[in-house]
Write a structure and sequence with these properties.
Elements: H1 16-31, H2 38-45, H3 59-84, H4 90-102, H5 110-119, H6 126-153, H7 163-180, H8 186-204
Protein name: HTH tetR-type domain-containing protein
Organism: Salinicola acroporae
Keywords: DNA-binding, Transcription, Transcription regulation
Length: about 210
């Protein structure tokens, strides 16, 4: 059994529930839902398998909680970007937001898990995973619509750009950049982001 770094040196140990979530996130990201067992998670946590049921009713319950966490973390990332750049020119705000969303996959295990959860949900959890995904998308949509409104008010976005077109283009760019994080090293990703950003901005900015 491979070892897992449960917490950085010098920090207090995680509570058992949090430790199980961290290990579950790692194993689900590496091996997928079907190939990961509660016995593996328990062994990595240094507890007996029945002890897991003191914290989670099932493997499905653990997976779905991690899925909700991943969605919440993406929302938190968006909110943090918008707050950090609140007083910056619109172009800088939009660029920062796009870059932050695209680099979500850099987070160890979480980015891979998020990608698996969105694209390849477990067969027996499709309905539950889709509901979580739809709720998350709805929350992201509201934030992106506020971004479009701010851009139009600032005169930074072209007048004919519709809300739907902006949101669809933003998602497509982020999805593409997320996929590239699994194919290229970071220096190359940064170079490619510059090209993607220049084309995206040219397509949405005011004439």
């Amino acid at each position: 059994m491979a070892s897992y770094a449960l917490y950085p040196t010098g920090r207090r140990p995680l509570k058992t529930r949090d430790r199980l979530k961290q290990i579950g996130l790692s194993l689900f990201a590496r091996h997928g839902y079907e190939a990961t067992t509660l016995a593996q998670i328990a062994s990595a946590a240094g507890i007996k398998k029945p002890s897991i049921y003191n914290h989670f009713d099932s493997k499905a319950a653990l997976f779905l909680e991690l899925s909700r966490d991943a969605d919440d973390d993406m929302i938190a990332l968006i909110d943090a970007s918008l707050a950090e750049m609140a007083n910056a020119p619109f172009e800088q705000r939009l660029r920062h937001l796009l870059q932050q969303c695209a680099t979500f996959a850099y987070r160890e295990h979480q980015g891979v898990f998020y990608k698996r959860f969105l694209l390849f949900p477990p067969h027996d959890l499709v309905a539950e995973a889709e509901a979580i995904s739809e709720q998350g998308e709805s929350r992201i949509d509201r934030r992106l619509l506020a971004v479009v409104l701010a851009g139009h008010r600032a005169g930074a976005l072209r007048e004919t750009l519709t809300d739907d077109h902006f949101v669809a283009a933003f998602y497509c760019v982020v999805d593409g950049l997320l996929s590239e994080t699994f194919m290229y090293e970071r220096p190359e990703l940064e170079r490619r982001f510059e090209g993607v950003w220049s084309v995206f901005w040219a397509g949405v900015k005011a004439d």
